[in-house]
Amino acid sequence: MSSEVAQQLFRECEASGAARTSEARLSVAIQKFWMRICPDERVFRSQEAPRSQQMRNVDAVGELQGERVVGSIVLQKVIKSSCYHLYTIFLFIVAKDQQSAFCAAHSPSSSGRASVNGSFLVLSAHETTSETNSRVCLSNASSLLQRTLTYKAGFPSHLERRESFNFKVSASVTTDVSTTELPVTPSVVKGDTWSIHKFGGTCVGTSERIYNVAKIVTEDNSERKLVVVSAMSKVTDMMYDLIEKAQSRDDSYELALDAVFEKHKATALDLLDGEELASFLSILSIDISNLKAMLRAIYIAGHVTESFSDFVVGHGELWSAQILSSVLRKGGVDCNWMDTRDVLIVTPAGSNQVDPDYTESEKRLEKWLSQNPSKAVVATGFIASTPQNIPTTLKRDGSDFSAAIMGALFRAHQVTIWTDVDGVYSADPRKVSEAVILNNLSYQEAWEMSYFGANVLHPRTIIPVMRYDIPIVIRNIFNLSAPGTKISRSPVNEIEDKKNLVTYVKGFATIDNLALVNVEGTGMAGVPGTASAIFGAVKDVGANVIMISQASSEHSVCFAVPEKEVKAVAEALEARFRQALSAGRLSQVAVIPNCSILAAVGQKMASTPGVSATLFNALAKANINVRAIAQGCSEYNITVVVKKEDCVRALRAVHSRFYLSKTSIAVGIIGPGLIGATLLNQLREQAAVLKEKSNTDLRVMGILGSKKMLLSDTGIDLSTWKEAHKEKGEKADLEKFAQHVHGNHFIPNTVIVDCTASTDVADHYHDWLREGIHVITPNKKANSGPLDKYLKLRALQRQSFTHYFYEATVGAGLPIMHTLRDLLQTGDKIIRIEGIFSGTLSYIFNNFVDARAFSEVVMEAKAAGYTEPDPRDDLAGTDVARKVIILARECGLNLELSDIPVQSLVPDPLKETASVDEFLQQLPSFDTDIAEKQRAAEEAGEVLRYVGVVDVTNQKGVVELRRYKKKHPFAQLSGSDNIIAFTTERYNKQPLIVRGPGAGAEVTAGGVFSDLLRLASNLGAPSC
Predict the structure, then answer these.
(1) How far apart are the C-alpha atoms of 840 and 842, rounded to whole Å?
(2) Residue 187, Cβ neighbours under 10 Å: how many?
(3) Three-state DSSP state, 416
(4) Is pLDDT above 80 for 103?
(5) In the chain, pLDDT over 70 holds for what percent of residues?
(6) What does the alpha-carbon distance between residue 611 and residue 141 come to, in Å, rounded to a whole number?
(7) How far is it, in rounded angstroms, from Cα 51 to Cα 465?
(8) The domain 816-999 belongs to what CATH superfamily?
(9) Is pLDDT above 60 for 986?
(10) Which three-class secondary structure string do you get for 237-264?
(11) CATH architecture of 512-659
(12) Count of helix runs (H) and strand runs (E) in the chain
């Protein structure tokens, strides 16, 4: 009703005084108003209206808003016939919001239905049985409306404002109605009593699976059920193959059609019997006979039209629907099957897609339901008809689309799509092994993820159900215990945690085999129509643009297209802009092949700071270069373009950052000897604590020994690693080991821990750092080796944003290197570093007292496990010299190992002795010389200590035996303690001293472990 008519109604009410007086006056006012606008029709207030006249629906009375009015409604019987009774209520005052009124109107029994017609709430109750039941239906509806309700009403903004008023509405407006023109009332009611199930070809691929489908449908407690089915597995492909063979005049199409017949016949024989079996086999035989004739026609013509092809292909769905409906009936279910070509009408929409005609489809559905009443319906997926009743299909993923359309047409309470996965994953589980099932998604999130390659759902499937807020649930038919993924407008939100960005980013998806096209030039800036010309050229060659990115300078536009289309796109652009290219207004049309798109999707990303930063930080830590970036203002999606070869690693990187622990690191350990084995035990004991308390996940992905290596894609069980390494280990291969730890799993951060003393292993540090692999080691060979290699190693480590930690190279687990770095980074100037760096020599000289022989103490140290297998390695002082070189280089001194004078404690005649046993046997004969030095020191009140010194001021170092007063800190040691004194500008009068155990597997492994934790806390920033 127009606003002018609405104004007439208000004036009529006001003139009659209805707004201020009795409800009787209002009734008269309404009747006068109705007679004025419909002079040829009569108004009835009696309980029964004649059937000979027509009924006139009341349209909206403008936009009512403003003042508060209290009103209630009475229900009038409009017509009575032998078939049914129809009752209609017209509510002239709209509720405060139509949604609440609409919901309230639905609250009676399912016998009533409601709709909001403009600003009116129209409720109709109908019944197809007896007069008694009709009265019950009337009572249910009227009891709802005869409550006192509060409404908000007033005048349209463009009408004169009226005073507020209170009254009760006690009259309804009707006219005579003809039974012949009443709308058909279906015997099967649409609405939320319906649930929709969709089963794909895999779900109905065998007799056993069809039986399981029937069981699922039977056990669904919904009052009414619609089941949408695809053709049996592979049948659609077989039908297309039939057409292709017939079109190419390949006689084998007849045998292929026979195979289709036998497949369905065998399935029917397994599942059906009696009349159901006979009926289906009869229909199947007729269909096959008709198909033979049609295929013969294709064979003769050597050509097939699209509609002809669609008709042939659609038979797979017809047969599977009939088989399933027969199985359900056999199980006692009241069931009919629906050929959706009789109901679903679609129109071509270009790009090999179709659009549903909902208006026409609703009409046909109403008619079909009235003619085929049942509690369950099995409908064909994939197929439909054009407005000219020509068979067609819904194209790719058409069965899912069918289910969604049916959900909208039936106003179902839920659409369940049954497939062979547990739901929608946070990422492709084939690429990210720790992808998780998402319990809930919004429509927008599901649409974004499906567009970017999440294959569970096609984007267009979501569109029909969004209109009526119908949720879609993705379930696994092979795992009924899995709840699946629910897709709805407002999904159940996870507990919000500002530190947990999983709340905001739901999932990640990728598209491969793309190419970037970059059009740039100074002549583009500020020139209207440039973008239109670019994408017009792309459209002309039929290419699909996946992503667009343009800087605000307008100097360039880049976009992604499928790689197979990029050649045509580039040629079209060069042809379109040939003149601009020649004149220099455009500098180039560049193509970057072998690209992939990575998209992060999440509805709650919008207006949430830090999501983009976290994403790009994860990519940076994984050493991934981003080629292009795009994000819409809705902020539901962040899209980046990366190299195809980096795509999987990029996907794992971002997924790890958002879904795994904040710091997840793949660990490869080389050298599972004394120190390596101890480190593995420490990791095993602390893994759970680290994950819970510091959100750090250290996964040991490989263990490499001298002969065997143990590799894992998900993480080695550290409680059984020794047995697994021995029994399941493969031949050791250092290159393969590094590649596996770095690339063949879902964790983007990789560290290799070298627990050996091998120069060969140390020579690989350079390559590992360059590839983005962090390195941690107690091995001194790299840092004390040739100076040029060391300098290149440190430069590369900084350039590649990788970390190289070596705390345990000096002082085992003591924080020597950490302390030195802190002093240097805070601006202190190192003057001298002096210390006892060898736990072995510390033990020997701490116990070389009184009248004990030097050789006796050496043998004691070897027996206690303090020395190397050959004690000469300790006594020669080379190990101490390496530590001095490491400290000197850390202080900025470019010294070689050969620049350090070393006093060896191995007598010259014994340096060439063949065996360790011979050395130990002959060592006592050289005790006199060292005993003399010890005695002289004792007489002077001093002790002997084997020390290393870094003289930073004079840029030199030395390793030698020195004497210290007994009150000196170096003289106060016990056991195998190390002690290091830092003399600096700040710590000048009294040096900064670090003291503690400097040898042993536990403390050395602890030093390596501390470096692992330091790496975890420093990821993302270059180390100093």
Answers:
(1) 5
(2) 12
(3) strand
(4) no
(5) 78
(6) 51
(7) 39
(8) Dihydrodipicolinate Reductase; domain 2 (3.30.360.10)
(9) yes
(10) HHHHHHHHHHHCCCCCHHHHHHHHHHHH
(11) 2-Layer Sandwich (3.30)
(12) 34, 36
Residue ranges, CATH 3.30.360.10, the chain: 816-999
Above 50 in pLDDT, residue 112? no
Mean pLDDT confidence for 655-674: 84
pLDDT band at residue 194 using 50, 70 and 90 as cut-offs: very high
Q: What is the pLDDT of residue 495?
A: 39
Interior CA angle at 620 toward 614 and 626, to 5°?
A: 100
Q: Which of 883, 911, 965, 966 is catalytic?
A: 883
- Cα torsion 655, 660, 664, 670: sign: negative
Q: How confident is the model at residue 41 (pLDDT cuts 50, 70, 90)?
A: very low
Among 771, 776, 701, CA closest to 741: 701
Angstrom distance (rounded) from CA 963 to CA 942? 6
The CATH 3.30.2130.10 domain(s) of the chain lie at 512-659
Q: Are 701 and 740 in contact (CB under 8 A)?
A: yes
Structure tokens at 955: 């840029």
- 13, two tokens: 């009410």
pTM (two decimals): 0.62
Which DSSP state fits 373? -
- Strand order in 708-711's β-sheet? 730-731, 708-711, 696-704, 663-670, 749-754, 774-776, 804-805
Residue 689 CA to residue 854 CA, distance in Å, equals 46
CATH number, span 194-419: 3.40.1160.10
DSSP, residue by residue, 526-565: T-TTHHHHHHHHHHHTTPPP-EEEE-TT-SEEEEEEEGGG
What are the structure tokens assigned to 792, written together?
Answer: 């290149």
CB of 887 closer than 8 Å to CB of 815: no
Active site residue 604: no
Residues 481-531 have pLDDT tens digits of 999 999 998 765 443 444 444 567 888 989 999 999 999 887 777 677 788
**761 vs 208, 252, 753, CA distance in Å?**
58, 63, 10
Question: Would you identify the CATH topology of the domain 663-809?
Answer: Rossmann fold (3.40.50)
